[in-house]
Amino acid sequence: MMSVKEIKAPIEAEMKEFEARFRTTMKSKVPLLDKITHYIIKRKGKQMRPMFIFLTAKMLGKIGDDTYNSASLIELLHTATLVHDDVVDDANERRGFFSINALWKNKIAVLVGDYMLSRVLLLSIENKKFRSLEIVARAVREMSEGELLQIEKARKLDITEDVYFEVIRQKTASLISSCCEAGAVSVQREDEAQNMRKFGELIGLAFQIKDDIFDYGTPGKIGKPTGIDIRERKMTLPLIYVVNNADRKVRNELINIVRRHNENPKKVKRAIELVIEHGGIEYAYSKMLSLRDEALKCLTHIPESESKNAILGLVEYTITREK
Prior knowledge:
The radius of gyration is 20 Å and the shape is globular. The chain contains 15 helices and two strands. The protein has a two-stranded antiparallel ribbon. It is mainly alpha-helical. A hairpin with a 2-residue loop joins strand 1 and strand 2 (97-98). The chain has a single domain, classed as Farnesyl Diphosphate Synthase (Orthogonal Bundle).
């Protein structure tokens, strides 16, 4: 399997240039805002979304200002949603660091997220990139709808597999599909925009299922199952499969734990055991692999290149990562 460093190799120079440009787009005349955005930039993650944009763009054409602008728009949007999500979820940590709301309180965190969304609008208008704005605006709408649909369904615990896929398509996959579509559009490859959008969506779905599986621990690896999703009453694919396919006794026990005993560590452990025992993880894993295979078909007609090889490596990394 390729490492993140190897995947980034074809776009290493572009990613460095992007980081410098992104810092500029985040600048403000308000010292408090600059302090917070500096904190955010210093604690960036693996930057998978910019990687999808730059690798898609380089695989299909020549990277220029449009690609850098598109990457800035998506990263601003992604950062804004993370800041807002931490407020919504009342989370004190993000990637092992204090969240913005933990350090500066909810009001400031919401305003920082709003500021970033305003930068998305202004950057698009300043550069007259209305097609990029369309892609990003669609992602904002879908992510919000997905979050609200999940909240609505979590109350009833009656989520079907179809509804689950609709939620994760909007909540998670819409952003990765936007990255791949924006990457194609940024190098004037409108002919590949819809194909790359579909590719990104399928990878985004696989990415989320991998996250679902993490909640139950990694077979053969050190590390206990977290059970966080069960504690938060989130109906993820392994759980949905068992609830819909196991016998009534197992189904009732699982629903009872999620509904009434989700704070009890022993009961959560029991729920994890039931899901594993009744094939929930195996089913989710097979779904994840079939989504990956479907995504790879989208790339078969694209000529071989270092960037294509790296994007294939990024797909494999997405489903084999251990955190």
